[in-house]
Design goal:
The structure holds two protein chains of two kinds. Chain A has 20 helices and one strand. By secondary structure, chain A is mostly helical. By secondary structure, chain B is α/β, with parallel strands linked by helices. Chain B has a seven-stranded mixed beta sheet with strand order 6-5-17-16-15-7-8, covered by helices on one side. Chain B has a seven-stranded mixed beta sheet with strand order 28-21-25-22-24-23-29. Chain B has a four-stranded parallel beta sheet with strand order 12-11-10-13. The chains are: A mainly alpha, B alpha/beta. At the A-B interface, helix 15, strand 1, helix 17 and helix 20 of A face strand 1 and helix 32 of B.
Chain lengths: ~400, ~1050
């Protein structure tokens, strides 16, 4: 009785529309959406399931949405027209049942959907990160630059040649001797074999060689750009980019553990139970995952980001506590068909970030309690101020 | 050194040994190269060197190997890779029971921790329980991987199916023919195992359960049966005793349940401002034991004097209690301590306890009578909820041996090894050979298993389900922490299967549990069986609620007179007596295949990887014996030749030899022992009144002329009167809490202090609570991936332990007073002993930091002295400049160098599974030292940050524990944040008893010690104080001069 009453009240609230949607907990709805729905739904575009915008105009009333979310199979079986229509439209892909969601939860989610505003693209890191740092840039600008330098070099050589010819001609005229081209060539030969030139060239060569050696030596053991072939042609571009699946939907350890964790096949199967075909390889690559899952065989992914054993790195510290975006270190993974090592992962790279990265000590109770000496200070606090450059923070 | 050779096929075994094959020799033509390839000398040599160098550089630049990331196929819901899971389980090695937590990472157990919920240990764990985790990964060849069958001299693997197909038939045949079947186990403390044995006996009516323990405690139960009419071993409550008199009983080291007793006893030893009292311990013993080393008064006593001493104590107390007095032979012991002890005990009656470790029913009867007079029953002794750590079977092994000739089968549980540990092992071996079917359940092909026809290996305890009932009313659960590594099968499962009950160990245990707690579940508001199971599995135990009734004091059922008469008549004074004892780490020898335990220095002698003959210093001088001199001890027809160890405190006319050594079969460490890792002393055990006794009279000792240097981790016996240890007596302390701790140094600090704004990690070590047991050392080894270096390296003072326990003997007071440096080096013949755990002191003015040329050791803003392995170039300046000698150098690549001590655990993939993945494994040429378990600090801080704004925003005081602190049964080590004025550690450091070791050099350690307060009798205390003061004035004069 009580339940029906509550449900009735809730339903009438829902029917009152957007005005009362404010009464629902939109923030809670967002949380629930991210936790449960986001891997298959978006508000403004079709992902695996339909876009949720304007859901109210499409679905039948009378609490249909509750039944559907909690157990869509039953609704389809009951012969519901709209349910069967969607089922057909999505090639018989069944929606995962969420029996744990209460009416209130679903109301919250839908309230959030109704109040959804598309996010403005975040400024800063995401765009800045598209250029790999420290590596040689490529692209039309670079080619243009090289051509320009070449042309300039040719022009300056021609200029020097002309000047020398003119000097010789003037001298010849002044001294009354005849001017000949071999004389000019001799003067060039003389200049080229002079001690000054030889010394300069040798020094330049040595310096260049040293520079090259040091640069190469510093790169030993660093594998920036490492793009190993993987046993399954998994595309982050499709999953993270096109469908916008959040990174930690699959990399579940990223906010808890030192390892972000590579997802087990069971996580793939959350969606690929229903999705058997992909846009790039058809059933081939997805088939590998399904086969591995069914045979209880692990997939041997090639590890891309390798740190030496003497380094301790913890994802939770950086992602959960520090609020670092995945892309800051891993680059634009959402655009990568095959993932490569974006940053060089050198110690200098770590240290630079620890020197520059600012920490908001007021955001975390730990810092408030332990490092309260920084609270209320004007100057920015960096990771290094909190001991982020000390050896035993990463080496033990 | 002889190379151990291992083989997989007989062909390999019989092939020519390496080096003799001409083809192999030509692999590297060194001689040819030297003679022919370098005809023109230096220039070519340089060219080749240059080429070699560049080739090496190029080779080093090769591509890194491909690494894989292997996810689970179906990720378990309760497991996040990178985050450890802890499971409560129980450890029982046939000697001691511990309730433990096992830390697992990605499904593999890596560390044993104490279970702080457990009523027995409250978080303490002994050294053996710590090291037992290594036995799980025991080098793949040592642990048996599958059942095997004897075929001539060899064992060939068989399938379980085959074994299950043949064995029950043979057993049934024997049972039908009326032939006895013997099932030999150690003491069974598990109700589940008892039920399995009962099922087996029900199926085969001729089966007999024989209980055999290498170390027998039966005399105690026998004495209680005779005098008090209840055959039981009481639960000892040292925590309730104000005065304890212990006779040849090492209850802090090895006796019965030492970790538990250590916790109990030290709880009475902690001096607090509100309760400045300390219990008093009199120890009468022959060899210097851990208990003797911690006693307030230690009186050397030969084993043959014990009966007379106990009767004297009995008479003295009986006179006060107005009971009968008996005639007793005169006993000469140093001082008048029997009388003093008697007075103290009597005054503290109801809070007094007398214990004896001698396995003699008559002596134990006298002890029972004394305790009865002291009103100990119901107070410091509990017969109502008795100790069940030792159980009885249908018969003893000695009685069963006679029946072996006509027996159908003998089944031997893996925990017992009578072919090695039985005093008359030969009788056992020859009797066993007559039995047609001999099955061992051992995990190793040990001395006994090698004599069997079949081996049906049992799981390791970390792979098994089980339970334990160490005390009546306390029920502990044991759960697996990993899937079985090999094709082994749990003992109970095998036994049940052969008894015709097809079940799994889990189902059987669960059914047992449900049945056992049915009665309880019927009560009102009692948890359901399922709830109780989950709760017990989580906590690791379940304690039956007490009915609240206090037991009536038991009545004496018989007179002690016959026992007194028998005990005094049995005294046979002799020239030389042999005392057989156990070492804290090795125990009875069951876990002797564990290198961590061999590397743990004996708390008293500081010797590793050996046993030896401990001799009294005066006796040694008279006979020309030095530490290392080979002596041959003969008793009856058996003799052993071992190096001698001149042991201060050893009673004159006695020698002591540790049991548990000299095994020859069952694992690589043991086989290494075949080359001289100690000698077996079990054959010295004699029988008196049907019970084995671990001391004997009438031995002879002769020098054989040999000499072996013992590997000692500490060689200097005394502190030379220096200020590193400070101790006082309770009476002094009561007068002045700063007693012995008045020396304070005030030196101006020129350089600014390291600022510590966030955390300031610090440690306080209470010397009053530390008994020197060494559990912390093994815990540290397991936590920090510390390599085993072997005996020869320890001889060169290259031990790797980050934490050591220094043991100092007291110097002769006269020498101390006169400041005679030469004489001060020598300890007293009967010294006082003090233990001091010594680890990196994390100095704020660290001398090591200033001398490192590459800044590999630096100071952190949290007060840590950080060691950065990847920066270290191995100059060893830091170690040379360390005043505490706590830095350790990797002279070799210990983890992977087989030439050092043979092929041990760290050289196989399997053995390395025990490594802590959060701690770097150090390579050759790198310095290392205690890091204050920085990985744990970082982890605790991170957990606080991740959970900030919710559960706990800052590691609470006591939340972060170092590995040594976690395992300490006594709570001697306290660690925490000194910046938090409310933390326990900052309170302790500000306490009057707190001092810095080597304060005068102003290195400002972040580890502080608390003065030792002994509870000596008044007169003794006064005389000690005088000499102490004398020494201090001298020291002070030296300092200022």
């Amino acid at each position: 009785m009580n339940r029906t009453f509550t449900r009735g009240v809730l339903l009438s609230f829902l029917l009152l529309g957007t005005l009362l949607a404010q009464g629902q907990d939109v923030a809670a709805g967002e949380k629930l959406f991210n936790a449960n729905c986001k891997s298959c739904h978006a508000v403004d575009k079709k992902v695996i399931g339909p876009a949720l915008q304007g859901w109210k105009d499409r679905v039948p009333g009378d609490g249909w949405i509750y039944k559907w979310v909690r157990n869509s199979t039953e609704v389809i079986k009951s012969g519901d027209a709209y349910a069967n229509q969607i089922y057909k439209e999505y090639n018989g892909t069944l929606m995962t049942a969420f029996p744990q969601l209460s009416d209130g939860d679903i109301d919250n989610i839908m309230a959030w959907v109704d109040n959804y505003t598309p996010p403005t693209p975040p400024p800063g890191p995401a765009t800045a990160a598209t250029q790999p740092q420290g590596s040689i840039p490529t692209g039309p600008l670079y080619t243009g630059l090289v051509v320009l330098i070449g042309v300039l070099a040719l022009m300056s050589f021609a200029l020097i040649f002309l000047i020398v010819v003119v000097i010789h001609a003037v001298r010849a005229k002044e001294s009354g001797t005849s001017f000949s081209m071999p004389q000019v060539a001799g003067s060039f030969r003389k200049a080229a074999t002079s001690k000054f030139t030889l010394t300069t060239v040798t020094l330049l060569l040595v310096a260049g060689g040293l520079n090259y050696t040091v640069k190469t030596a510093r790169g030993v053991g660093l594998h920036q750009g490492y793009t190993p072939a993987q046993p399954v042609a998994f595309s982050h571009k499709i999953h993270a980019g096109q469908y916008g699946i959040s990174c930690n939907y699959c990399h579940t350890g990223v906010e808890k553990s030192k390892s972000a964790t590579i997802p087990g096949a069971n996580i793939c199967m959350n969606c690929h139970n229903y999705i058997e075909e992909g846009p790039n390889y058809g059933k081939v690559e997805i088939g590998k995952v399904r086969a591995a899952y069914e045979a209880n065989r692990r997939i041997e992914w090639v590890r891309i980001h390798n740190l030496p054993d003497l380094v301790y790195f913890n994802h939770a510290q950086h992602v959960k506590v520090g609020g670092v975006e995945c892309q800051e270190c891993h680059g634009p993974v959402e655009t990568m068909e095959v993932v490569y090592q974006f940053s060089d992962l050198s110690m200098g790279w770590c240290i630079t970030c620890h020197r520059e990265k600012q920490v908001d000590v007021t955001k975390n109770d730990y810092y408030l309690k332990v490092h309260n000496e920084y609270v209320g200070k004007e100057t920015a606090v960096t990771v290094s101020d909190l001991g982020g450059l000390e050896c035993a923070k990463c080496h033990y | 050194m002889r190379e151990n050779r291992y083989w997989q096929t007989p062909e390999q075994l019989h092939a020519a040994p390496a080096g003799t094959d001409p083809k192999q020799e030509r692999d590297i033509p060194v001689d040819e190269l030297l003679e022919n390839a370098l005809p023109s000398g230096r220039r070519d040599f340089l060219k080749m060197m240059g080429f070699g160098l560049s080739a090496a550089v190029l080779a080093a630049c090769q591509k890194a190997p491909v690494k894989y990331a292997l996810p689970y196929v179906k990720n378990p819901t309760d497991l996040v890779p990178g985050i450890p899971n802890f499971y409560a389980t129980g450890f029982y090695d046939g000697q001691e029971f511990s309730s433990i937590l096992v830390k697992t990472r990605e499904g593999r157990p890596i560390k044993v921790e104490g279970n702080k919920l457990s009523p027995l240990h409250k978080g303490g764990v002994g050294a053996r329980a710590h090291a037992s985790i290594l036995s799980l990964y025991d080098n793949s060849d040592a642990r048996l991987r599958q059942p095997a069958e004897a075929n001539g001299d060899q064992f060939v693997p068989v399938a379980w199916d085959k074994l299950d197909g043949t064995v029950p038939g043979k057993l049934a045949e024997a049972a039908n023919a009326g032939k006895p079947i013997y099932l030999i186990t150690g003491s069974v403390i598990s109700p589940m195992r008892m039920a399995a044995i009962a099922a087996f006996k029900a199926k085969y009516p001729t089966a007999q359960h024989v209980v055999y323990d290498a170390i027998n405690y039966d005399a105690i139960a026998q004495a209680h049966e005779t005098l008090l009419g209840k055959r039981a071993m009481p639960a000892y409550r040292f925590d309730k005793a104000q005065v304890v008199a212990s006779f040849n009983c090492d209850f802090l080291g090895t006796w019965l349940s030492p970790t538990e007793f250590t916790r109990q006893w030290t709880s009475t030893r902690k001096v607090t401002d509100t309760n400045p009292t300390v219990s008093r311990l009199y120890q009468f013993e022959a060899q210097m034991s851990l208990t003797g080393a911690n006693a307030d008064h230690r009186i050397p006593m030969k084993p043959s004097q014990e009966a007379a001493a106990l009767v004297a104590l009995y008479n003295s107390i009986a006179a006060r209690a107005r009971q009968d007095i008996y005639n007793a032979p005169k006993v000469e012991l140093a001082g008048n301590f029997i009388e003093k002890a008697s007075l103290d005990l009597w005054e503290a009656r109801g809070k007094a306890l007398v214990v004896s470790g001698t396995n003699d029913a008559n002596i134990q009867q006298i002890v029972v009578a004394i305790n009865w007079m002291l009103e100990a029953y119901g107070a410091t002794l509990d017969l109502e909820r008795p100790c069940l750590l030792r159980s009885r079977g249908d018969s003893t092994l000695e009685a069963a041996l006679a029946g072996f000739a006509g027996a159908g089968a003998v089944l031997i549980h893996g925990g017992t090894n009578p072919a090695y540990s039985h005093p008359t092992a030969e009788a056992f071996t020859s009797a066993l050979a007559k039995v047609p079917l001999r099955i061992s359940f051992s995990s190793y092909l040990d001395d006994t298993a090698a004599l069997c026809t079949h081996v049906a290996p049992d799981h390791h305890y970390l792979e098994s389900w089980g339970d334990a009932q160490p005390y009546a009313g306390q029920y502990f659960l044991q759960q697996p922490t990993i899937q079985p590594l090999f094709k082994t099968r749990q003992f109970e499962e095998t036994l049940l299967l052969w008894a015709g009950v097809k079940t799994t160990a889990f189902d059987f245990l669960r059914a047992q549990f449900a049945q056992a707690h049915k009665a309880l579940a019927d009560k009102k508001d009692a948890p359901s069986v399922d709830q109780l199971w989950m709760q017990s599995l989580h906590d690791g135990f379940y304690v039956h609620p007490s009915d609240g009734k206090s037991a009536d004091a038991p009545k004496l059922a018989a007179s002690v007179a016959p026992a007194v008469a028998a005990a005094t008549q049995a005294i046979k004074p002799a020239e030389l007596e042999v005392v057989l004892y156990q070492k804290v780490a090795i125990g009875d020898g069951t876990l002797t295949n564990n290198p961590w335990l061999h590397e743990l220095p004996d708390p008293i002698s500081k010797a590793v990887w050996d046993n030896y003959v401990a001799v009294n210093p005066v006796d040694a001088q008279a006979k020309g014996i030095k530490t290392g001199t080979h002596v041959k001890v003969t008793l009856g027809s058996y003799s052993v030749e071992l190096p001698a160890y001149v042991q201060p405190g050893q009673a004159r006319g006695t020698v002591a030899i540790a049991l548990g050594y000299g095994r020859t079969k069952g694992g690589k460490v043991v086989e290494y022992s075949g080359k001289g890792l100690g000698k077996n002393a079990y054959p010295f055990v004699t029988f008196a009144g049907g019970l084995p006794r671990y001391s004997a009279t009438g031995a002879t000792l002769e020098l054989t002329g040999g000499f072996t240097e013992l590997a000692l981790s500490q060689r200097h016996p005394t502190s030379m009167g220096r200020d590193i240890i400070r101790e006082t007596t309770l009476s002094e302390y009561r007068k002045n809490p700063k007693a012995a701790n008045e020396h304070q140094v005030h030196i101006v600090q020129v350089f600014p202090q390291h600022p510590k704004n966030g955390h300031w990690w610090a440690m306080a070590i209470d010397l009053n609570a530390c008994t020197g047991c060494g559990a912390c050392v093994v815990s540290c080894v397991a936590e920090n991936n510390i390599a085993v270096v072997g005996r020869n390296e320890v001889k060169r003072s290259r031990e790797m332990h980050w934490l050591r326990i220094d043991r100092y003997y007291s110097t002769n007071p006269e020498a101390l007073e006169k400041q005679d440096l030469k004489a001060m080096e020598l300890p007293e013949e009967y010294p006082q002993v003090i233990f001091q755990p010594m680890l990196c002191q994390q100095c704020d003015n660290a001398p090591c930091e200033t001398v490192c040329p590459v800044l590999a050791t630096t100071h952190s803003s949290e007060g840590l002295n950080q060691m950065t392995y990847n920066r270290c170039i191995g100059t060893r300046y830091c170690a040379n400049n360390c005043p505490y000698k706590v830095r350790r150098f990797n002279w070799f690549n210990y983890w992977n160098d087989k030439t050092l001590y043979g092929d041990l655990y760290s050289h196989s993939e399997m053995g390395r599974l025990v490594l802590n993945p959060d701690v770097t494994v150090r390579f050759r040429g790198v310095m290392e030292k205690c890091s204050f378990c920085v990985q744990r600090l970082q982890d605790a801080k991170l957990r606080a940050k991740v959970n900030a704004n919710s559960t706990f925003a800052k590691p609470e005081d006591g939340e972060v524990k170092t590995a040594c602190q976690q395992s300490c049964p006594t709570g001697a080590i306290v660690f925490g944040d000194f910046n938090d004025p409310e933390s326990e550690v900052s309170k302790l450091i500000r306490h009057e008893r707190s001092y810095k070791a080597l304060e005068d050099i102003k290195v400002l350690p972040n580890v502080q010690y608390m003065t030792l307060v002994r509870n000596r009798t008044e007169a003794e205390a006064a005389s000690r104080a005088r000499t102490q003061k004398g020494a201090e004035t001298h020291a002070a004069a030296d300092h200022h001069g």
